[in-house]
Amino acid sequence: MICENHTRVTEFILLGFTNNPEMQVPLFILFLVIYTVTLLGNFLIITVTSVDPALQTPMYFFLRNLSLLEVCFTLVMVPKMLVDLVSPRKTISFVGCGIQMYFFFFFGSSECFLLSMMAYDRFVAIGNPLRYSVVMNRSLCLWMAVGSWMSGVPVSMLQTAWLMALPFCGPNTIDHFFCDGPPVLKLVTQDTTMYEMQALASTLLFIMFPFSLILVSYTRIIITILRMSSASGRQKAFSTCSSHLIVVSLFYGTASLTYLRPKSNQSPESKKLVSLSYTVITPMLNPIIYSLRNNEVKGAVKRTVSRKVLQKLDVF
Q1: What digits encode the pLDDT tens for the residues 137-158?
Q2: Which residues form the G-protein coupled receptors family 1 profile domain (predicted)?
Q3: Model confidence pLDDT, tens digit, residues 81-120
Q4: At what angle do helices 152-165 and 193-203 cross, to 10 degrees?
Q5: The pTM is what?
Q6: What residues have CB less than 8 Å from 150, skipping those under 6 apart?
């Protein structure tokens, strides 16, 4: 459809969280602190799982990939959001909006599948511990990680290319803090039923399918744990899964509220808060959850810090 008697939109205005100037600077400081903690926490996980010999296992290989994904995921949205909070001109070009949307879908879909790979890893570790190192060998782990990252390509290309090819002939104000699918969809000036049907199908495939794999893995994990005769063994098995379960609950619980109901009657403010939780808050909490609830990670952090301190003392 060509925009007859109307000029096609060439840029969008992002309303962000508030137009109140008195709130923008405090929000900027708050989100800057959160983003800094996110980067430091995830880079710390990447570092300790890379250099510590005790963490060279499939579980921490996938955790390292998760932390790298979280860094990339927040990089797509947070810097632009911070700039918009202190800038009088809160615009993004049409192409820039499409690029941001593509990488948002890409990293989000990749994280869904990576979380399911992590659940399978825990299932093998608990359900078949004697063959764990044989089953979860280096080659398989590498292919599982590559597959998780590449799984985001089809959905991101389809969703972005289809949506951005639709006519945008009228308003160009996005009531959100980044170019997400549902708020951008509201600006399309033609019937979007076909796109919404495709978006729902993609959501079921790329969000609910890996979630169902997680459910299957944890169902079998729970059955295995309940069959254990040792109480200490059951407690240890549950403790190895608790961090991953918390992360999965945070990510899927909030993301499903947005993408299973792309045109719901939620207020824009509510949708922004839900989006904020899985785009900004969850990536900050993930390294905290894994470090506070995992003695091996805490020990590795202490060893890494001690090693760096000793190296500096040797220099002097």
Answers
A1: 999 999 999 999 999 898 899 9
A2: 41-290
A3: 999 998 888 899 999 999 999 999 999 999 999 999 999 9
A4: 170
A5: 0.88
A6: 110
Q: What is the CATH number of the domain that holds 36?
A: 1.20.1070.10
For 267: left if phi > 0, alpha if psi spans -120 to 50, otherwise beta; the answer is beta
Q: At what angle do helices 282-292 and 58-86 cross, to 10 degrees?
A: 140
Cα angle at 156 between 17 and 274, to 5 degrees?
Answer: 30
Domain count for the chain, please give it. Answer: 1
pLDDT in tens, 1-59: 555 656 678 889 998 887 777 888 899 999 999 999 999 999 989 988 888 888 888 99
280: in domain = yes
> Is residue 61 within 8 Å of residue 143, measured between CB atoms?
no
Q: Which of 299, 225, 275, 314 is nearest to 55 (CA)?
A: 299
Host domain of residue 245:
9-312
Which residues, listed in sequence order, are joined to residue 91 by a DSSP beta bridge? 13
